[in-house]
Each structure stands twice: as structure tokens, then as C-alpha cells.
Amino acid sequence: MTLTRCFLASFLLFFASFTLPNAASANDSFTTEELLEGFEKTVFGLEYRSWSWRPYLVKKFTQPVLFYVHNLSSRDRSKVVRRFVREIGNRIGGLTTGITNDRNAANFEVYVVDRAQYEDVVRRDIYKNDRARVPGRCLVRVVSGRKGIKRSAAVIVSDEGEFLFKRCLVEELLQGLGPMNDDAALIHSVFNDSSRHSRFTVFDQIILNMLYDPRIKPGMSMKQTKDILPLVVRDARRRVR
Q: In the chain, what are the domain boundaries?
């Protein structure tokens, strides 16, 4: 073996030993206790209590989630939204997602707006109340019942920078699937208004895979999930790579 080949082989061996464990262990970066706490804070909390049935119980879709995209902003963000919807479907076991061109067939509507449109769209299309208070810089509303989430609708602001758009897209679409609360203690999560995450983090992927595990049923209380959650965490780790 020549000196050049020897050096190259040594470098590749070093590079592999340096990078592969990190990739393989990404889903082991968090303790079981951290993930259980994250599940408790996001799934059993509720940022805006009046938006959902029985707020402190499990909320999730039990049927395929069909998204319809309303691009009302001056910039067409449809491709980005559709790409993230596909990512959601690829990364969450137990959940089927799709995109429809038939608004009446959708159970998750996404409105992409400019800031000047935000309040009008929220009042007219989300609350259907011209006098409703409009919270937040972007939002999602979830309508849930005993058999799970019936429908969700998110409003995402497009024209106030890439960070806000991407963060809102990720946070609101994921919250519309069930983990509806934010908490400042969740430093690895987009479900934290103080964090700088704008992507579907590994931590959040595990939380969503826990929620969509078939053993977790709509309407379950925190007490009812307590005994099975350690097994659910273990299996969710295996699904997230």
C-alpha cells in the first residue's frame, strides 16, 4: 500500500469512527426521564385551553391526515409546506399523511399568509368570529372529541423572515397533530417559545412517535399512560434514526 493510500485509509477509518456513533446514537441523546417529561408537558398540557375537548387528555388523529394548503401570501410557499407534510409522514410511525386538492376532503388546513392578512384569516377562517381575539405570531386550532382529533387548521406567516416561517410551519403543524403545549423547560424541542429550533428535532420525532404508538389512545389520561410509556419510549427510539 502506498503512503497516500495508507493515509487515506487511516483518515477514512478515523472519520467513520468519529461520525457514525453520533449518527447512530442521536436518538439516545436523551434519557427516558427527559422523554417522559417531554411527553407529559406537550401532550397533557394545552396552551389555549378553550380550543379542545377535555384538554388534559391524549389528543391524536386516528385516521389518515389529509392536508390542504391555502397559499394566500405574496410568495408561494406551497412546495415547502408539501415537502414538510411528506417529512411528517416519513418520520412518524402509526400516522398516514397526504395532500389533497379537494378542500372538502381535508381534515388539516394550512393557511400561509402575509402578516397583514393574519388577523383577518384567523377571525374569518379559523374562529369564524369577526370579534375574536387573535393570539400569537402564528397559530393552530385543533377540534378534538372522544374518538380523536376531528380537524386542525394552522395559520403560518410567510413574510417576516425565513426563521419565523420555518419555525411556525414545523411547530404549528406538529402541534395540530396532538402535542399542543409549549414549555420553556424543553430545550431540545420546537415546542418551546424560547428555543431557536426551526426543524423537526430528534427529540420531537420521538415524542410524536410515542403519541402515535397504537397503545396510546385518544382520551387517555396521564395516569392511564403511565405504566406503558416506558415501553412506548423504547419502541419510539427504534423508529427514529
A: 30-239
C-alpha cell at 13: 477509518
Other beta carbons less than 10 A from residue 193's beta carbon: 13
Phi, psi angles (nearest 5°) of residue 201: -70, 160
Distances from the Cα of 154 to the Cαs of 30, 40, 103, 126, 229, in angstroms?
29, 23, 14, 8, 29
Q: Which pLDDT tens digit goes with each residue over 90-141? A: 999 999 999 999 999 999 999 999 999 999 999 999 999 999 999 889 999 9
3-state helix, strand, coil in the chain (%, to 5): 45, 15, 40
Contact 172, 204 (CB under 8 A): no
Instruction: Tell me the CATH architecture of domain 30-239.
Output: 3-Layer(aba) Sandwich (3.40)
Q: Quick one: which of 168, 240, 207 has its CA closest to 42? A: 207
C-alpha grid cell, residue 217:
389512545
Q: In which order are the strands placed within the sheet that holds 97-99?
A: 97-99, 65-71, 108-113, 148-157, 139-145
Q: Is the pTM of this model over 0.70?
A: yes
